[in-house]
Write a structure and sequence with these properties.
Order of helices and strands: HHHHHEEEEHHHEHHEEEHEEEEHHH
Oligomer: single chain
């Protein structure tokens, strides 16, 4: 391609990106009552997508050509608009562009390090992001992964019991009266109910030990008929041969031929190969559904193992369980992208409504990046014509 050809291609790409963002903004525009707020939301999205070092009030304002952060703060704190409606638009956008019958819903939480005691939900608590106890907020998120891409669908702020039971702090932070204390698995169920209730196409649900060890969440999924692959702890109790055993004890008695080496996906260093095995469990299920204990073993250290409860169609193959278990890492990659590219964790707000507003717009920006990137890659490969996101 000549230099002029390169320039023309780049110009068309930029035009397509702009058209895609215009289309996405038009989708959410009815959620904003006033034209001024509607346009500021679009500029906010542009700021989140821009190459700004920190996506906080001052730097976003500078990127938007404003003299101070007051306009940005007003959009998040006081303007009239519906963040949950934008969340619904986000889900519809993701389904339209990335939805697939083989989609997987992924639950995980992430921490937002904060100073002080005023930010809603903040306290000293364990953060997987930091790998230790820190003064932070915790958000529970619902991710989506399909053969077409990966991004987020929903979000929920974890409100610790000490906050939920403190009327003065709740009022100061603007926590709605109807919001009660909910555990992280209970928040996860709320997110899943919304997504599955709105028709998001998904064949499986997956999550880490915090959610897999919760019997109420597993029972809800089973009763609703949703298949899952949920990580559990090594001492997780399961029934076998009429008695309860720890997951690790049950697996220790398996013969060597019970294991198979399989890839659970491609990582930064190539195929992620492990030894895997599964044991069917004697739990009564709805017709055509069966439960298993799935185990992953390191090839280099056989003592290094991970355990999963699986509930799925009776014909489910070991390779399919492994595929779903491996997809849980897609949400970790999405967190990394969302924090590094669209400022998911770079907000400077303290109140309930403002947190949800920033997070929702950041998730929308992340979804736009994923859809645009996938579309551009497909065009380069000649797989499909350019489509405006």
């Amino acid at each position: 391609m000549t230099l002029d050809g390169d320039t023309t291609y780049q110009r068309r790409e930029i035009e397509a990106w702009q058209a895609g963002l215009d289309s996405l903004h038009a989708r959410i525009a009815p959620r904003f009552r006033r034209t001024e707020v509607r346009q500021r939301a679009k500029r906010y999205l542009l700021g989140l997508l821009a190459r700004v070092e920190r996506k906080n009030g001052w730097q976003l304002a500078e990127q938007l050509g404003e003299v101070g952060p007051q306009g940005v703060q007003r959009l998040l704190n006081a303007a009239q608009w519906d963040a949950d409606g934008v969340r619904d638009d986000l889900q519809a956008y993701v389904v339209e562009h990335l939805g697939d019958a083989d989609g997987v819903l992924i639950v995980d939480e992430t921490g937002f390090l904060k100073k002080g005691t005023k930010s809603v939900g903040v306290q000293r608590q364990y953060s997987g992001t930091a790998g230790r106890r820190e003064n932070c907020q915790i958000g529970v998120f619902l991710g989506y992964a399909s053969p077409k891409g990966r991004t987020f669908l929903d979000r929920g702020l974890y409100l610790p019991a000490v906050w939920a039971n403190d009327a003065e702090r709740r009022q100061e932070a603007g926590v709605p009266e109807e919001v009660a204390f909910a555990t992280k698995p209970e928040l996860a169920q709320q997110l899943l109910e919304r997504a599955l209730g709105s028709g998001v196409p998904a064949r499986w649900v997956t999550a880490d030990e915090l959610y897999g060890n919760d019997p109420a969440l597993r029972r809800w999924l089973e009763t609703a008929g949703y298949a899952y692959v949920l990580a559990v702890s090594c001492n997780h109790p399961v029934w076998q041969a009429g008695q309860q055993e720890r997951a690790d004890a049950l697996v220790s008695a398996l013969p060597s031929e019970a294991w198979a080496t399989l890839s659970c996906g491609t990582g930064s260093q190539g195929e992620r190969l492990y030894d895997w095995c599964c044991v069917q469990l004697p739990y009564e299920q709805a017709s055509s559904m069966v439960q298993w204990l799935l185990v992953r073993r390191s090839l280099s250290d056989r003592a290094e193992r991970a355990y999963f409860r699986v509930c799925g169609p009776v014909e489910t193959a070991l390779e399919e369980m492994v595929r779903v278990a491996g997809l849980r890492w897609a949400i970790e990659e999405s967190f990394e992208d969302a924090k590094g590219l669209v400022g998911l964790d770079q907000y400077e707000v303290r109140k309930w409504q403002a947190w949800y507003r920033h997070i929702t717009l950041a998730l929308l920006a992340h979804a736009y990046l994923e859809v645009t990137r996938r579309s551009a890659n497909a065009v380069k490969k000649g797989d499909l014509p350019r489509l405006s996101p």
